[in-house]
Amino acid sequence: MMKSKVLELLINSDGYISGSKIASELNVTRAAVWKHIKSLRETGYDIKSFSSKGYKLVNYSKAFNKYELELLIKKLGLDLRVFHFDTIDSTNTYAKNIDGENALIVANEQTNGRGRLGREWSSKKGRGVYFSLMLRLELPPHIVGMITQISAVALREAISDTAMIKWPNDIFIGDKKIAGILTELVTEIDVVEKMIIGIGLNINEVSDYKDIATSIVEEKIEFNHLDFFSKFLSRFFDLLNTFVELRNLAFIRGEIEKYSYFMNKEVYITRSDKEYIFRGITDYGNAILESTNGELEEVFFGEMSLKRR
Ligand code: BTN
């Protein structure tokens, strides 16, 4: 924490800032300041020092790290703890096992990244963004699916305007998946103790799934980790606040439908032969499907695919 405070002072000072000024602002010794500067340099920050003038940050770290995330979260005014790992089994698993208040868990690599329906989520270093939000919401379980759809709205916007939401919560560009969401719960009888929203975004080509997956690099999307987190987190928590008051998706339904990958297209539900036309979603996030005889049905959950001709 102290290290990120030193970094904050460096970022906010126009020119040089003296070691004694940093020390007095943070109420630590000059030796401690020096230790933090050294450690920031090791992380990749280019900090110049002149004995007469003090320190100056000349270059931001290219490496995306915990300190930058903490500063961002502070800037956004969010109450979120940050956990950052170079490597971890799964950020969702970690999120399930920690106590305390809301948290953001980010990893450069996962050794056991998990997708929906028990699938594996390929999580090699540098190939994607892998993170989980652990939220203490004290809401009833049936609300949770709607929050997952809110996260899909924020995720779509943070990725690219060309991205679409494949109901309920995959993000597609063209006919390929660029990001996925795995929501998990720790529940007591009728209340959700913890909600975990795990997100995986492909940055570089996912070679094993080339025909069904795409990535930031393949789509030539301009991308910066901090901008992405800034857009995603600010939008998500904005929407979440409104949602917690209203408890339905009416306020964002238009947006979800506008960017729905399935909208007015012929779809089928996997493992069923029935065909439908996707007509939108209800205020509670269920899919509205029109069957071939013109009747409307609501679907609460299911893997859905476009009908191929
Ligand atoms: C899916 O589309 O199947 C959901 C993929 C979710 C992957 C993310 S990566 C971060 C978090 N940790 C995991 O183990 N899974 C999610």
Describe the structure.
The protein starts with a helix and ends with a strand. The model has no long low-confidence stretch (mean pLDDT 90). The protein contains 8 helices and 14 strands. β1 (46-50) and β2 form a beta hairpin. Helices cover 30% and strands 28% of the residues. Biotin is lined by residues 90-92, 110, 113-116, 119, 121, 130-132, 170, 180-182, 198-200.
Write the layout of secondary structure elements.
Elements: H1 2-12, H2 19-26, H3 30-43, E1 46-50, E2 54-59, H4 66-75, E3 81-88, H5 91-97, E4 103-110, E5 128-135, H6 144-159, E6 164-166, E7 170-173, E8 176-187, E9 192-202, H7 225-246, H8 253-258, E10 266-269, E11 275-281, E12 287-291, E13 296-299, E14 304-306
Parallel strand pairs: 3-4
Antiparallel strand pairs: 1-2, 4-5, 5-9, 6-7, 7-8, 8-9, 10-11, 10-14, 11-12, 12-13
Helix pairs in contact: 1-3, 1-4, 2-3, 4-7, 6-7
This protein binds biotin.
Residues 90-92, 110, 113-116, 119, 121, 130-132, 170, 180-182, 198-200 line the site of biotin.
- Proportion of residues in helical segments: 25-40%
Low-confidence stretches: none
Global Rg: 22 Å
Q: Output the structural class.
A: alpha+beta
* Beta-strand percent range: 25-35%
**Number of helices, where a helix is a run of at least 4 consecutive DSSP H or I residues:** 8
Query: Averaged pLDDT, please?
Result: 90
Features:
single chain; 309 residues; alpha+beta; seven-stranded mixed sheet
